[in-house]
Write a structure and sequence with these properties.
globular, six-stranded mixed β-sheet, 31 strands, 25 helices, about 30% helix, eight-stranded antiparallel β-sheet, alpha/beta
Length: about 850
């Protein structure tokens, strides 16, 4: 039975006039009076924005009309955003969700190679289901949101532009607006309405795995770019605002995600409120003033309080003071991180000012039901629900979703020729050229004559996935091959085309070997792809513990071959050794699919003229040491290797010699034990059970799951150990994992071990292994029988394994995803406790690999 709530006269008047009054409502429905002193302080810091998009009385009247007709269930459905892997078309027909999304790595029909027409077909089905009033009694069109962060990056064949860090080095807002407009067209060709961009984080610590999503450490560039991208995506407020060639934009993530302590993704920002505005809010000043219609709340906290539940920031600052009248959408179950909340229940987020729950996985249904219940009990006020739904309807009405044709019938839908169109790729090439920053050019070795014998080496030379980075088809940008990027050009292919056309010779050799001695070598190398969480690092040393690229550079240098280094990265990194080994060094960032743009700058024309000069300038300061992770212009004692704004042009005097300090300044002497399971799994680690292809997150003191049985056990104190019983019915495992990879290489370098207590409850079979895993499907295992004393049963014994034993088998400790996994195909019963990574104990380990 559906429940209908009628708006009172005050609410109707408020909605028509100014929604910001409603956004400050308390739980009992009365308008909350902000303390005068606090209000004055807020006004001194946060401006009242002059927003280009004004309220339209006609739209406001329509909002009131809809709200009067809608039931509570229909209103809450507008506030629920599930993910395409977790809902069906029939779910959309039944519930009428206000929006839905595809997360990174989600595709129509679960097919990575889904065609643009497959995307349009799903959009059409969802749209038609949303306006089918035969089940839910109302016809409100849904919206599809997607992460198009450097082009329409989820779609095979799309134009992928340089990631934001490269665009920041270009410092060209006009170009950025053009890129955003192209992105909008390619997005609309797949029937999608709404883009989760721009990211306007101002990065303060380059260890953060999302550094490449930031344009600059300079808030001014971020402010200007934010406005440019919003205008490019949505159209300008005074011209073609949200016309049939534009999409809804999202300024994200509100607020301070680039300023967390130690660059920890989803961590805590402890800046002052004035700094929060001066540094981290400037992208909102630019983007919201231009008229962005949505804001995404951030995972991070501000002074310990999660932003998804921070009423002061979401309501008092963003909506009331700054005057934002669009909607606030959450990030991927971000509401579940609020104290007292779960993914399935979080009235705190709605009361704080969140308007749409982004709720992937099956949590959407209990969240929907719990929110309805919480309104009925008064835990969430109807005024707050009406305000949230009014905001969603306002954006839909402004975007013309009620009047536009269905997704399959829109102007660009299904026009596959627009995906990766030649003119779009030409703009991307322009962006690549402008993003390149020349850090070193000894003896003016650049630009190069294309008539030479050129060796093109390095594992990124012919690797479009690596040059594109994260958020490229897949979420982390991993598991892609060149064939997954039809129409794209690798850096090698771009160089080869021009060199061959000029009569030179281009030799591709990833490892740098050759038969005919080259005149010069271009070595393309850099970071492996990553995205949020997995990209966090402990320090900025490149290839710490595995200097394969440096070995290649030095090998060529020792043979007297001049070397031009092209460095692919999502952040500035400490590469002093690599700089010393190179005659020229180019920061190419993550250029995307149009690698040929690099050849345009490095090579002269066939008639020996400069084609394009270097114009890019560092929008992030370059570190002097591996531990100089937070170095930003304006800092006290600012002392980078290369300052913000640095960038050579052809003919400029070279400033970097070959004698840069190669001491990273890393010091592991103060390294302490890392607790993995001590009493219980220690954050960020958690325990999973696997049986066959099924996975279970451990959530209680006992589970029976397929071929594995689990319970807590008392060793020294209550429930400080864990017992695992394997039945042998199928392959099963108990794995301590983290959602995002952890950089633990310091423990390997410090001669560390993994130490744990273990008890064999039955005789040990030979097929029980202890494994470690790391990002990119790497990992290693050791037979448990080689580690423990099998003669000791039903008694605890302490065991330690030299981390080098795992490293020798290929475990990358800079990207560890599981430090401890017990796996068995047969019957076994094992208890474990006190799992730790411990430095300086390898020589004493039960199993040493020295």
């Amino acid at each position: 039975m559906k429940t209908t709530f009628k708006l009172n006269a005050l609410a109707i008047a408020t909605l028509v006039g100014s929604v910001t009054a409603l956004s400050g409502c308390s739980n009992d429905g009365n308008v909350e009076n902000i303390n005068a002193e606090a209000q004055s302080k807020t006004a001194k810091i946060w401006p009242k924005l002059s927003i280009a998009v004004k309220k339209d009385p006609v739209i406001e009247a329509k909002i009131v009309d809809y709200l009067q007709k809608m039931t509570l269930e229909q209103k809450v459905a507008q506030m629920i955003q599930p993910e395409i892997r977790d809902i069906t078309v029939e779910d959309m027909r039944k519930y009428g969700f206000g929006s839905y999304l595809n997360g990174g790595g989600a595709f129509p029909n679960g097919d990575k190679h889904a065609t643009p027409n497959d995307w349009v077909a799903l959009a059409e089905k969802m749209y038609q289901a949303s306006i089918d009033d035969s089940v839910d009694g109302i016809a409100i069109p849904t919206m599809w949101g997607t992460d198009a962060v450097h082009g329409h990056n989820n779609v095979i064949g799309a134009t992928l532009f340089p990631h934001n860090i490269g665009l920041g080095a270009a410092n060209n807002p006009e170009l950025i607006e053009k890129i955003a407009a192209i992105t909008a067209v390619e997005v609309m060709a797949t029937g999608i309405d709404w883009v989760f961009a721009p990211t306007v984080a101002v990065v303060r610590d380059d260890r953060w795995g999302r550094t490449y999503e930031g344009y600059s450490e300079d808030p001014q560039i971020v402010r200007d770019y934010s406005a440019a991208i919003v205008n490019g995506l949505q159209g300008r407020a005074d011209s073609d605002f949200l016309s049939d060639k534009r999409v809804i934009s999202t300024v994200k993530h509100f607020i301070g995600d680039g300023g967390t302590v130690d660059g920890d993704d989803q961590g805590d920002n402890v800046t002052t409120e004035q700094e929060l505005f001066d540094i981290h809010a400037q992208g909102y000043v630019g983007g919201l003033s231009a008229g962005s219609q949505s804001v995404m709340a951030s995972f991070n906290s501000w002074h310990g309080k999660k932003n998804h539940g921070n009423k002061y920031l979401l309501t008092d600052v963003l909506k009331t003071r700054m005057g934002f009248d669009g909607f606030v959408v959450g990030d991927w179950n971000g509401h579940g991180q609020i104290k007292g909340c779960t993914n399935e229940s979080c009235p705190q987020a709605i009361n704080a000012g969140l308007d749409i729950f982004m709720v992937p996985t099956g949590a959407w249904k209990p969240l929907y039901e719990n929110t309805i219940s919480q309104v009925k009990t008064g835990e969430i006020s109807m005024d707050r629900i009406d305000d949230a739904v009014a905001r969603v309807l306002r954006v839909k009405l402004r975007a013309g979703l009620f009047d536009k044709p269905s997704p399959a019938k829109r102007q660009f839908s299904g026009k596959t020729e627009l995906i990766g169109a030649k003119e779009h790729r030409e703009v991307a090439k322009e962006a690549v050229r402008e993003s390149l920053v020349l850090l070193k050019n000894k003896n003016n070795i650049l630009p190069l004559s294309p008539k030479q014998n050129v060796l093109i080496a390095g594992d990124a030379a012919d690797n479009i996935g690596k040059q594109s980075g994260g958020w490229s088809i897949t979420w982390q940008g991993t598991n892609n091959k060149n064939v997954d990027f039809p129409g794209a050009t690798s850096i090698y292919s771009g160089l080869k085309d021009q060199i061959s056309a000029a009569g030179g010779k281009a030799i591709l050799s990833a490892d740098g070997t050759f038969e005919q001695r080259p005149d010069i070598a271009i070595v393309v190398f850099g970071e492996e792809p990553y995205a949020e969480g997995h990209g966090d690092r402990d320090n900025l040393e490149f290839e710490r513990g595995n200097k394969k690229s440096l070995v290649l550079l030095n090998s060529l240098k020792e043979q007297g071959i001049p070397v031009v280094a092209v460095f692919i990265s999502g952040r500035p990194m400490w590469v002093n050794s690599e700089l010393n080994a190179s005659d020229a060094f180019v920061a190419a960032w993550l250029p995307g699919t149009e690698g040929a743009g690099i050849a345009d700058v490095l090579l002269k024309s066939a008639d020996d003229k400069v084609q394009y000069n270097f114009t890019g300038k560092l929008s992030f300061s370059w570190p002097k040491t591996a531990i100089q992770t937070a170095v930003n212009k304006g800092d006290e004692n600012y002392d980078p290797l290369l300052p913000y704004g640095f960038g050579l042009a052809y003919g400029d005097k070279n400033v970097l010699a070959d004698d840069l300090d190669e001491d990273s300044k890393l010091d592991n002497s103060a390294l302490t034990n890392m607790n993995v399971l001590v009493g219980a799994p220690v954050a960020p680690w958690r325990l999973l059970l696997k049986s066959g292809d099924k996975i279970l997150d451990v959530s209680s003191s006992t589970h029976e799951f397929g071929a594995i049985k689990y319970r807590t056990e008392d060793k020294t104190v209550q429930e400080d150990a864990r017992q695992f019983d394997f039945s042998g019915a199928e392959k099963a495992s108990a794995e301590i994992v983290t959602s995002f990879a952890e950089d633990t290489i310091a423990y390997l370098e410090a001669n560390g071990v993994i130490s744990f207590d273990i008890k064999l409850n039955d005789a040990l079979t030979n097929d029980v292994v202890l494994a470690m895993t790391c990002s990119g499907s790497c990992g290693a295992s050791i037979d448990l029988a080689d580690i423990v004393d099998k003669s000791i049963e039903n008694e605890w014994q302490s065991v330690s394994i030299d981390l080098g034993c795992f490293a020798k088998q290929g475990v990358n400790f800079a990207s560890l995803t599981s430090p401890f996994s017990l796996r068995s195909n047969s019957k076994a019963s094992i208890s474990v406790a006190n799992i730790q990574l411990v430095p300086n104990k390898a020589d004493e380990a039960t199993l040493s690999c020295k």
